[in-house]
Amino acid sequence: MKSFLLSFFLAFSFLAKGQNLYIKTYGNKKDKTIIFIHGGPSGNATLFEGTTAQKLADQGFYVIAYDRRGEGRSTDSNATFTYEEAFQDLNSIYATYHLKRAIILGHSFGGLVATLYTNKYPQNVSALVLAGALFSQQETYDHILNTLKRKYNNDSEQLRKISIVENLNKNSAEYRKGCYELAGENGFFKMPKPTAESKRLYADYEAGEFFKTNIRNKNAPLLFYQNEKQNNIDTRLVLKKIKTAGVPIYGIYGKEDGIFSSSQIKSIKDIAGENHFAFLDNCSHYLFVDQQNEFLANIKKWIK
User: Fold this and answer.
1) Which residues form the signal peptide (predicted)?
2) In this structure, are residues 53 and 63 in contact, taking their beta carbons and an 8 Å threshold?
3) Quick one: which of 14, 51, 259, 285 is 20 to 30 A from 266 by CA?
4) Backbone phi and psi for residue 234, each to the nearest 5 degrees, phi listed first
5) What does CATH list as the number for 2-303?
6) pTM as predicted
7) Judging by beta carbons within 10 Å of its beta carbon (0-12, 13-18, 19+), is residue 142 exposed, middle or buried?
8) 254 closest CA partner among 148, 136, 131
9) Tens digit of each residue's pLDDT (9 = 90 or more) over 51-63
10) How many CB atoms lie within 10 A of CB 90?
């Protein structure tokens, strides 16, 4: 426990504007750098760190995991929860670790941060990897609600719950929260047939030290939707612009990730390209755990 606490303490770096970010690195700094951007708002990198970060480093990468300002272990009561603030923190990471360029790996909501950052600072990004990443928010919300309406077409109580969410302001944190709560209650984020390996990874994580620091800031989504004007966006045109600018884009998604429709998956595959896209069987939203070996193999094939 003492060694973990020491490691935890050393993982903090003093960054711009006097803010402390939780940051931890894995692997050899002489290798290609991958910066992992977690989901949220209100997320953290603990699941990625507790299951995958070191294994990705073992493939020959220098992996940097961090929690965004005000989220997870990067506690900050003054955080504004805007994309621009997230960009400032990423640029601080580049400065702290003397990075000229890095591979950006964005998961879930982190994919939006990764995409918008790459669009603003393409010179800093050698490749953009979207892993179960959001890219068309309203289509995702519509898909969740429409799927549930079909599922519960004869269940008046469930349809009433869906209708309440559907009639909320679509640019509100309450709407987003309602959609994802319904998705979670209905297993949209779980792989249908957990493998022995995925069960072990999840169990080890839940029994380990990273799970104990799985801190969630319940106010983060509310503040994000209050402070950030870009709060229900479609980044596909931005991704096309990034690709045209010469930054390679890769996409890796789970076939059983319930928050994406087949048309959404086709559209992101078309942008990334056939050889830059992987669609994993028996895999849901947390693909770096659900099908870890395939996840690692694809990253290595594309980037190494």
Assistant:
1) 1-18
2) yes
3) 51
4) -120, 115
5) 3.40.50.1820
6) 0.92
7) middle
8) 131
9) 999 999 999 999 9
10) 26
